[in-house]
Amino acid sequence: MSNIFITGGSRGIGAEAVRQFTAAGHKVAFTYHRSEIAADQLRQETGAIPVRCDVKHHDSVKIAVDKATAALGHIDVLICNAAIADYDLITTIDISRWEEVINTDLNGVFYCIRYALPTMISRKSGCIITVGSMWGEIGASCEIAYSAAKAGVIGLTKALAKEVGPSGIRVNCVSPGMIDTDMNASVSEEAEAAIVEETPLCRTGDPADVAKAMLFLASDDASFITGQVISVNGGLVI
Ligand code: NDP
Question: Taking a C-beta distance cutoff of 8 angstroms, is the pair 125, 168 a contact?
């Protein structure tokens, strides 16, 4: 049994990860930002511990990591999942919106790792799973900030794997394709059908598809895997 800390656990992929890790017998703390009611329902459903956090502010992240550490004892596995999407042209995106996406999706990952890592280093053991995106691998038109942030997450993952591997810590990135969550609520039926048409496995993904990859990477079965980007996209990006 491991102690797991998942950011963005109140909805979507993160909430499914909370369910899967608790069902597998792990002790789980997770963050929510705005979805307090959903977080409390998930607490009742799974026994996992909710902690409020805005990942774009490092002081909020520090408090959340401290609370999670106090509740769990220590953190064995950190899953940096919280993020926001954005659709805009580079010529029209507000500077403030660019900053919000980078602060949430890239800096938020850095803050979580920055505050959770020292205990892992002193324990000479740990596992970090970042959540990228296929758009961080290949870029998406009209998703300049999101693509840049997720490409940054992938670079951070690879660099950190090299830096902390000798300390017994593995760092990998799960890179989803199109998954059925609120994040894609504004995608039109036509656009979704076009993506399914291009996907070799002929469907969009479920949050469980991604959570199962996280479970594998967090397990001893993945003990020789670090610095990798594990794509969960039905073959849409190969
Ligand atoms: P959702 O929009 O369903 O959920 C996002 C989660 O992130 C929520 O729990 C939300 O918390 C949390 N969150 C958002 N902003 C903040 C913040 N500032 N501070 C703390 N938490 C925050 O997203 P998904 O489940 O779809 O996405 C999960 C991950 O998977 C993300 O990293 C996303 O980029 C990635 N991904 C998703 C894809 C998809 O198709 N769905 C494709 C590729 C990657 P709350 O509701 O409490 O505010």
Answer: yes
Q: Where are the domains of the chain?
A: 3-230
User: pLDDT, tens digit, for every residue of 108-138?
Assistant: 999 999 999 999 999 999 999 999 999 999 9
Give residue for tokens 């691998």.
Answer: 137
**How far is ligand 1, taken at its centre, from the CA of residue 175, in Å?**
13
pLDDT tens digits, 196-236: 999 999 999 999 999 999 999 999 999 999 999 999 999 99
Residue nearest to atom 6 of ligand 1 (CA): 8
The pLDDT value recorded for residue 201 is 98
Give the architecture (CATH level 2) of 3-230.
3-Layer(aba) Sandwich (3.40)
Nearest atom in ligand 1 to the alpha carbon of residue 204 is 40
pLDDT of residue 122: 98
Q: Which residue has the tokens 């902690």?
A: 51
Residue of 6, 7, 11 to test ligand 1 pocket, by largest number of atoms within 8 Å of CB? 11
pLDDT of residue 159: 99
Eight-state DSSP code of residue 172: E
DSSP string, 41-88: HHHHHH-PEEEE--TTSHHHHHHHHHHHHHHHSS-SEEEE-------B
Cβ atoms within 10 Å, residue 135: 22
CA distance 75 to 25: 15
